[in-house]
UniProtKB/TrEMBL annotation:
Cellular component terms (Gene Ontology): membrane
Entry keyword annotation includes rRNA processing: no
Name by which UniProt lists this protein: Divalent metal cation transporter
Bilayer-spanning residue ranges: 20-39, 60-82, 94-115, 127-145, 165-189, 210-231, 251-279, 291-308, 314-337, 349-372
Pfam name, any one: Nramp
Membrane topology: Multi-pass membrane protein
Superkingdom as given in the UniProt entry: Bacteria
Keywords from the UniProt entry: Membrane, Transmembrane, Transmembrane helix
Annotated localization: Membrane
GO molecular function: metal ion transmembrane transporter activity
UniProt keyword annotation of Membrane present: yes
Length: 380
C-alpha cells in the first residue's frame, strides 16, 4: 500500500503544493495523515472481519451499490493511470529531453509488454524496488544539501499561515483514495490475513502503511522547501525536475528521471490491473477477457493523455478525484460495520466509528468545495 501510494502523483502533488504553501504545507501533511489513518483503519478492519472484498460488502449494504462503487473505483483508477502515464512522460523528459507525450506512449508499450509476460513483470518489480531505494536516498540527499528551514516547517505544521483545502483532499485521495486502500485490504485477504484473530495485525498494518508513505512525503517536503526558500522558481512543466537538478546537478536530474519513470511504469501496470479486477469481479464473461480489458485500459489512458496533455495538472487532478470517492467508500464500510447480517456479533469500536464518520464527512465537504472552487482553476 505504501509503495503504491508513493508514485508520480505523490511526488508531483507534494512538490507543487510545497511551492504554493511553503512551510505551511506541513499542516496539510499533518491533517492528511490523520484523515488517512481514520479512513484506512476502518476500511481494512471491516474487510478483515467480513473476509470479503470491498465491492462485495457494498452489495450487502445495498444491492447494486457494490457495482456502483466498482465503477467509481475504476473511473478513479483511470484518472490515476492517466496521471501515471503523465508522470512517465515527465521522467522521459528529465532523462532525454523528450516530449512528455512521446515518453507516455513509449511507457504504455513497455507496460503492455510487462503485463503480458510475467517474467518481465517479475524483473521489473525487482528493479523498481532498488530504484525506489534510490529515490529515498536521492530525496534525502536533496533535503540535506538544500538546508530547509526545519524549525519554520515544524512551527507552521501546527500554526499555518496558509491553508488549501484542495491540497488536503488531493493528498488524501492520492494516499487512500480510490483503489489504493482497497488494494491493500484485498492483498491481506489474498495472504490469508483475515478474521477476528488478525484484527490487531491488520489495524497495526493499516497505520504503519500510512506512516511509511508519510515519512517519505515529509522528506520530499523538506527537500522541495529547501530549494524554493532560496528563491528558485520551479518549472511549471516539470517542477520536480527543477528541485533535483538544482540540488544534484545534471546527474541528479537524470537519476530522478529514471526513478520517476520506473515508479510510473509499475504504477501504470498496477493501477490498470487492480482497477479492472473491480469490474471483472461481477462478470464471468469479463473475467475471461481480463487481459484484453487491462490492455484496453492502458491504451485508453494513453489516448486521453496524448489528447489532453498537461501531465502535472492531471497528476494533481487524479488525487483530487480519488479523494471524492473516499467518502462513499468509507461511509459504506461504516454502515456495514453495524449490520449484524454482515459482521455477525462483531462490535466495531465506538471511537473508530466516530473517527471514521468525521473523516467521511470532512472529506465529503472538502471534496465539494474543491469541485466548486478549485478544479476549474487548473485548466483556466
Amino acid at each position: 500500500m505504501a509503495t503504491s501510494a508513493i508514485g508520480p502523483g505523490f511526488l508531483t502533488q507534494t512538490t507543487v503544493f510545497t511551492e504554493r504553501l511553503m512551510a505551511s504545507f506541513g499542516f496539510v501533511i499533518l491533517i492528511s495523515i490523520l484523515l488517512d489513518i481514520g479512513a484506512q483503519m476502518n476500511i481494512w478492519r471491516i474487510i478483515c472481519v467480513t473476509e470479503k472484498r470491498g465491492q462485495e460488502i457494498a452489495n450487502l449494504v445495498l444491492p447494486g451499490l457494490g457495482i456502483f462503487i466498482a465503477l467509481a473505483v475504476a473511473l478513479g483508477g483511470l484518472a490515476f493511470n492517466i496521471g501515471n502515464l503523465g508522470g512517465a512522460g515527465l521522467g522521459f523528459q528529465a532523462m532525454f529531453g523528450l516530449n512528455t507525450r512521446i515518453g507516455a506512449v513509449i511507457t504504455a508499450v513497455f507496460a503492455i509488454i510487462i503485463f503480458m509476460f510475467k517474467e518481465a513483470g517479475a524483473a521489473m518489480d525487482r528493479v523498481a524496488r532498488w530504484l525506489g531505494l534510490l529515490m529515498i536516498l536521492l530525496t534525502a540527499y536533496v533535503a540535506i544539501v538544500s538546508s530547509p528551514p526545519v524549525g519554520e516547517a515544524a512551527l507552521r505544521t501546527v500554526l499555518p499561515e496558509k491553508m488549501d483545502i484542495m491540497a488536503i483532499i488531493t493528498l488524501v485521495g492520492g494516499t487512500v483514495g480510490g483503489y489504493i486502500t482497497f488494494a491493500g485490504g484485498h492483498r491481506l485477504l489474498d495472504a490469508g490475513i483475515s478474521g477476528r484473530e488478525s484484527l490487531g495485525e491488520v489495524t497495526k498494518s493499516s497505520v504503519t502503511g500510512i506512516l511509511v508513505a508519510s515519512a517519505m512525503r515529509v522528506i520530499l517536503f523538506l527537500a522541495v522547501l529547501g530549494i524554493v526558500v532560496q528563491g528558485v522558481k520551479l518549472s511549471a512543466d516539470n517542477p520536480m525536475a527543477t528541485v533535483f537538478e538544482t540540488a544534484a546537478g545534471s546527474i541528479g536530474l537524470k537519476l530522478f528521471g529514471l526513478v520517476l519513470w520506473s515508479a510510473s511504469l509499475t504504477s501504470v501496470v498496477g493501477a490498470a490491473y487492480t482497477s479492472v479486477t473491480f469490474l471483472t469481479s461481477f462478470s464471468p464473461a469479463m473475467e475471461r477477457h481480463r487481459s484484453k480489458i487491462v490492455i484496453t485500459f492502458i491504451l485508453v489512458s494513453t489516448l486521453i493523455l496524448t489528447l489532453v496533455g498537461q501531465p502535472v495538472q492531471l497528476l494533481i487532478l487524479a488525487g483530487a478525484l480519488n479523494g471524492l470517492i473516499l467518502p462513499l467508500i468509507l461511509g459504506t464500510m461504516l454502515i456495514a460495520a453495524h449490520r449484524r447480517k454482515i459482521v455477525g456479533d462483531y462490535r466495531h469500536p465506538v471511537w473508530m466509528t466516530v473517527f471514521g464518520t468525521l473523516v467521511a464527512l470532512g472529506t465529503a465537504w472538502f471534496g465539494v468545495l474543491t469541485l466548486i472552487e478549485k478544479i476549474p482553476q487548473l485548466f483556466a
